[in-house]
Amino acid sequence: MTYSHVRSLVNMSSSKHRHLQKPSTHVAPDRRQRRSADIRERLFQAALRLFAERGFAETTVEDITNAADVGKGTFFNYFPSKDHILLAFGEMQLGKLQEAVNTARSKNEPMPEFLRGLGVRMTQEPARNPAIIRALLQGYLSTTRVREAMMDMQERVLSLHTQMIQLGQDRGEIRNDLPAAELAQVFRQTIFGTLLIWSLYGDASLHSRIESAFNVLWSGLTPRADVTNGPRTSSLKPGE
Predict the structure, then answer these.
(1) How far is the C-alpha of 200 from the C-alpha of 191, rounded, in Å?
(2) Is the distance from CB of 187 to CB of 138 less than 8 angstroms?
């Protein structure tokens, strides 16, 4: 699912509601708004494509605007800096994660299958490109406001992962002698660490690496037959 797909899902949802509701006087977005959304999407897609081809540091704003066929000054009407493309990408991934959690709740999918599939789902294009992952790492290591925003985004990611683990604990599918937040942190670190190591190689081994990491991780997540106590209080501080 790409950034444009996330926006399309929102539009499709709104369209369904319009069909169910009585006609209203609501006016659809005018041509200027549609053109603005199109330009932002073109900039976003052009930037990701160039990041993947050339690398984040080697891509300039002018490169992006040329690829998107817009004037250089137009870029800053949509993104304060090149780094903010990474934030838009992060929001796209966060939307995919939220959708996955909602699906897990509604379909009652067994947690082992859900978590296994989640790793694959979150590393589909464009996240399957090693240059994109390395660009994200640059964003986390930067000293700009973008880093603060990305860290805030990670807090929301951890919250969603915690909800998933808690759901598995409630169903008796995940060990409950450790707090959900602590297990979620290990899950996040495992996936993120696997991505970073793979990005150094950039070969076709991503899904097999994630599969191997999950198999080892799941052996530590399964319920303990000799444990009857409920989850203990987490020793982790927010963001750890």
Answers:
(1) 15
(2) no
Its pTM stands at 0.72
Determine the average pLDDT of the residues in 216-221.
88
Which helix (H) or strand (E) element contains residue 42? Answer: helix 31-54
Please state, in angstroms and rounded to a whole number, the distance separating the CA atoms of residues 230 and 200.
Answer: 40
* Residue that wins the pLDDT comparison between 98 and 235: 98
Residue type, 33: Q
Cα–Cα separations (whole angstroms), residue 98 to 95, 101, 157: 5, 5, 9
110: left (phi over 0), alpha (psi -120 to 50) or beta: beta
pLDDT of residue 10: 34
Residue 104 identity (one-letter amino acid): A
The answer for residues whose C-beta is within 8 angstroms of residue 63's C-beta and 6 or more apart is 50, 54
Taking the C-alpha atoms of residue 158 and residue 154, their distance in angstroms, rounded to an integer, is 6
Q: What pLDDT is stored for residue 140 in this prediction?
A: 73
Q: Would you state the pLDDT for residue 24? A: 45
More confident: 28 or 133: 133
Give the list of residues 6+ apart from residue 230 with CB closer than 8 angstroms, or none: 176, 177
Distances (CA, A) of 200 to 49, 52, 137, 165: 19, 13, 12, 29
Tokens of 136: 């994200």
Question: Which residue type sits at 35?
Answer: R
